Amino acid sequence: MENGKNDLSEYYKEAAHAEEEISTLKTCVDDIKRKLYDKVIQPTEDPELNKLITENTKLKHRLAILNRAIGEEQSQNKLSSNTKMESITEALNNLFCTAISAAFPDIQDPPVVIALAGNNPKFGDYQCNSAMPIANIYKQSGKKVNPRDLAQKILDNLPSHPMVEKCEIAGPGFINIFLDRAYVVKSLSTIFEHGVQPPTVEKKRVLIDFSSPNVAKEMHVGHLRSTIIGETIARLLEFVNFDVLRINHIGDWGTQFGMLIAHLQDRFPDYLDNMPPISDLQAFYKESKKRFDEDPEFKKRAYACVVKLQSFEPDHIKAWQLICDVSRKEFQKIYDRLDITLIERGESFYQKRTEKIVKELEEAGLLEEDEGRKIMWGDQSTNIPLTIVKSDGGFTYDSSDMAAIKQRLEEEKVDWVIYVVDLGQATHFYTLFACAKKAGILDEKKHRVDFVGFGVVLGEDKKKFKTRSGESIRLVDLLDKGMEKALDKLKEKGRDKALTPEELKRAQEAVAYGCIKYADLSHNRNHEYVFSFDKMLEDKGNTAVYLLYAYTRIKSIARTANFTPEKIKELSKKESLPLDHEKEWKLGKVLLRFPDELLKTLNDLYPHHICEYVYEIANTFTEFYESCYCVEKDSSGDIVKVNYGRILLTEATAMIMEKCFHILGLNPVEKM
Ligand code: ARG
Questions:
Q1: What are the extents of the domains in the chain?
Q2: pLDDT tens digit string along 505-518?
């Protein structure tokens, strides 16, 4: 093609235009499909639908042809000047989607199946496994076809792309895809110039509700899970440049404050002038609960205090604030130690809004009387209603959550709300979502809401995690214990002799808090897990200790060869990443998956994907290091040869591990 550049920009314009048209049509088709689903219209009776489907297919075909031309132009002009690693899965998906829709214009939404190839280099790096399901679609409409022929047809329509070196048909119709090494080198090398960049995703405003302990009650391991998982999800969302609101929905309003305030008035009558010295709020809670249960006079006063608090009587508000302050300080100690950031916005924040929404729900006829209570039903999938107003007229956890979801979607105008709460509350949240939809607050076409649940933490006896005397374990004690055990472990390895006291302290914290976080994050969050310091402090297997050690070892390689980060950056301009050796190639391909792993986690919010991924990086690095020398020394320990390219590969590995560590909240140390 002569005037390559001009033609290309025309193609781009037309392709963008066609894409826009398709997306509009898609919305129409989706809408009609939904109506069909609801049995509002019958397919054969609706010429509008048939017309749209034909139109959509035609446009898709046109887009496919245009995309193909772009791909061909790109490979000729080597246009791609990337500043970040792109998602290979996504790029292959687009490429094969183009080929498949061009090859089979008669099939509506043909399946595009891209997978990682197995370990045998013969099968390439990725696979497209679409031919078999497409053959099945033909078979169902009575046409017999050979999937291998279909695979060939896909390849005939495949635009050439600099990412793909070659494709081969194998077995019943698999397409083995071989990545182009020069392309992979180029893609990975972007990190030396631009750092490890996030994949490109459409920016969203997200609110994440996590941690959320209750005032005056001790934060327990359930809250610890929410805190750790929530922090990681928040870090991931921030890394991909979303606008993130980290909200601590603490339980700071409710009837328990009646007895707490009444008890405060008795124990510290001068509380309005002098800050009461409550050091152990849990004991204070227990004392007041005991009086509440045993003394009817006190109980009466406690109820009166609730009423006064809820009508915002100043002295009662002051007492409430004092109690919240004590709790807040305790919570903050945990957050500081674990490096957690949160904005406190507890249940009390929503009180005025709760009054308002209750009125609105009532006026909309959405509330039902039930033995003096006012309840609201969700949809068929949830069979327990929300209690919006109690029989004594008070509000509940449910009603403040209705007010909160409205505040978040309508005032904060977020696109996405994520609740990180134990699985025991699943029904509450699914009912909440259904009710919010019913009330016109939540619109699933505009908003995404996720309940990110998690299983319980078990003790080593496989029973609910408790102290020997059956009390729930205080988080501070747990963290202290972790620090103690981490130090033992480091001493066992003689690290107290090799490190300076400061280095040892840093390593101790990295190990202690890292192991607690990682043990939590590396398990599928839907499962329960056994809390065991001995297991999490093992230096083999998928543990924080193993990974932190692997990282320090990797970092020490460049250090041995006297490479500072600045020198490595310089080096990357002269030297290119080597990917010829089988183990170099294997490592390079694992690193290349970084954007894919993040996108996967962004989609399903399972942080254990990232843990498995860093673990795979560490293992693949070990394999590489065992067969590829980076720095060669003679018998007296002097450096005789440095493989500069491999130093770069080592650094790239460390950089990607660091990003994963950051998302997981692990603090890597250079010396351990
Ligand atoms: N404070 C609650 C508890 O400890 C968790 C709150 C979760 N968030 C929410 N919006 N309901 O069980």
A1: 4-179, 255-344, 349-454
A2: 999 999 999 999 99
